[in-house]
């Protein structure tokens, strides 16, 4: 059941321990619950010497992660956290945690996911008093956020697409894996939600040798405490798999991956056609140079489809996950996000 209460008690220090690794360390409060989903508002860590004063008048930022893995890839650990970097820079930062689907969520449709995202956006709007917000979507979360922005441009001041696919004809190995000639998402989810084991085995199949390679790589850094901590945190997140709602999965695979309807302007949500050209706000697409999940052309297609006069493609080194939380993220990605949001969200909100 959706709750309308304004505040819930959150973790005192934000840290969650799963499998022995400390993850999701940025302090946060739950300000909204919607079924299994929760909306977080991050706080500055007490005594953080790198924290800057709050940016007065700056619009808030909502982070929208993928539903395929847990949300805390955007707040993995200190120094490897999009959320931490933005909070330290003085932004008011929120994050939609899609939650862990239950058995009954097999009936959660693609349209209902859009409604849930819309409620999160409106909650941030009401909580802050700003009519518009900045949004950052990661992976599938960027695809969902792009769709929402096209349908509801009045709420979105800026949109960052962080390694999210839009042209699924450029989906690479993952697109080949779910080709309609040999992949039937309806049959796969007939018993219910797609299980974590099914999800994980698909990604392992993309690069089978990587499971061995990562352990060999760890041996090379066995005496580096920081490297071991990073490896453990990443393994914790990578192994924290969750189900995917069956109904939404069928639509996602069939209409986007197999039919590529979104970029063609033939995808519909609740009977309304999704036209990426309706997006006129500033857009930043961040792609990575070694991404096997969302190759560069799949992500950059967003910039080709929007009507924004202010749009930018920023390519960062690394793979789909490493570019976001790897050793170079704090030197390349995070400063770029802070600079871009700082420029885009400082001015008064547009009239609606």
The total number of structural domains is 1
The unreliable regions are 1-12
Distance between the termini: 30 Å
What is the CATH topology assignment? Rossmann fold
Gross morphology: globular
Q: Into which percentage range does the β-strand content fall?
A: 15-25%
CATH superfamily: Alpha/Beta hydrolase fold, catalytic domain
CATH level 1 name: Alpha Beta
* Count of distinct strands: 12
Mean pLDDT, all residues: 89
Topology as a string of helices (H) and strands (E): EEEEEHEHEHEHHHHHHHEEEHEHH
User: Tell me about the biggest sheet?
Assistant: 8 strands, mixed
Give the radius of gyration.
Answer: 19 Å
Give the name of the CATH architecture. Answer: 3-Layer(aba) Sandwich
List the helices and strands and how they pair.
Blueprint: E1 16-18, E2 21-23, E3 28-34, E4 37-42, E5 61-64, H1 82-88, E6 93-97, H2 110-128, E7 133-138, H3 140-151, E8 156-162, H4 172-177, H5 185-188, H6 196-206, H7 210-220, H8 225-239, H9 246-258, H10 261-264, E9 268-269, E10 272-273, E11 283-288, H11 296-305, E12 311-316, H12 322-325, H13 333-344
Parallel strand pairs: 5-6, 5-7, 7-8, 8-11, 11-12
Antiparallel strand pairs: 1-2, 3-4, 4-6, 9-10
Helix pairs in contact: 2-3, 2-9
Provide a short characterization of the protein structure.
36% of the residues lie in helices and 16% in strands. The chain is an alpha/beta fold. The longest helix is centred in the middle third of the chain and has 19 residues, at 110-128.
Features:
single chain; 352 residues; alpha/beta; Rossmann fold; eight-stranded mixed beta sheet; two-stranded antiparallel ribbon; 12 strands; 36% helix; 16% strand; disordered N terminus
């Amino acid at each position: 059941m959706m709750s309308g209460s304004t505040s819930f008690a959150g973790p005192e220090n934000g840290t969650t321990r799963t499998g022995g690794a400390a993850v999701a360390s940025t302090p946060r409060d739950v300000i909204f619950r919607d079924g299994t989903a929760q909306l977080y508002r991050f706080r500055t860590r007490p005594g953080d010497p790198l924290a800057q004063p709050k940016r007065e008048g700056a619009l808030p930022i909502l982070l929208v992660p993928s539903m395929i893995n847990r949300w805390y890839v955007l707040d993995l650990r200190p120094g490897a956290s999009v959320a931490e970097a933005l909070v330290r820079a003085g932004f008011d930062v929120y994050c939609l945690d899609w939650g862990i689907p239950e058995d009954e969520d097999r009936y959660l449709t693609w349209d209902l996911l859009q409604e849930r995202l819309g409620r999160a956006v409106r909650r941030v709007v009401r909580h802050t008093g700003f009519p518009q917000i900045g949004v950052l979507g990661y992976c599938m979360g960027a695809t969902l956020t792009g769709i929402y922005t096209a349908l509801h441009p009045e709420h979105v001041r800026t949109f960052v697409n962080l390694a999210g696919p839009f042209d699924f004809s450029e989906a690479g190995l993952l697109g080949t894996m779910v080709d309609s000639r040999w992949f039937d998402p309806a049959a796969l989810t007939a018993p219910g939600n797609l299980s974590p084991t099914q999800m994980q085995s698909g990604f392992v199949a993309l690069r089978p040798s990587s499971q061995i390679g990562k352990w060999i790589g760890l041996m090379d850094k066995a005496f580096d405490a920081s490297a071991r901590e990073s490896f453990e945190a990443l393994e914790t997140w990578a192994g924290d798999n969750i189900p995917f709602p069956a109904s939404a999965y069928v639509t996602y695979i069939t209409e986007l991956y197999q039919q590529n309807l979104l970029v063609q302007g033939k995808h519909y949500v609740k009977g309304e056609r999704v036209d990426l050209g309706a997006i006129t706000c500033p857009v930043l697409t961040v792609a990575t140079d070694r991404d096997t999940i969302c190759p560069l052309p799949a992500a950059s297609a967003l910039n080709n489809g929007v009507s924004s006069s202010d749009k930018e493609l920023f390519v960062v080194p690394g793979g789909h996950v490493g570019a976001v939380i790897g050793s170079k993220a704090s030197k390349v990605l995070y400063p770029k996000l802070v600079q871009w949001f700082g420029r885009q969200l400082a001015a008064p909100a547009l009239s609606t």
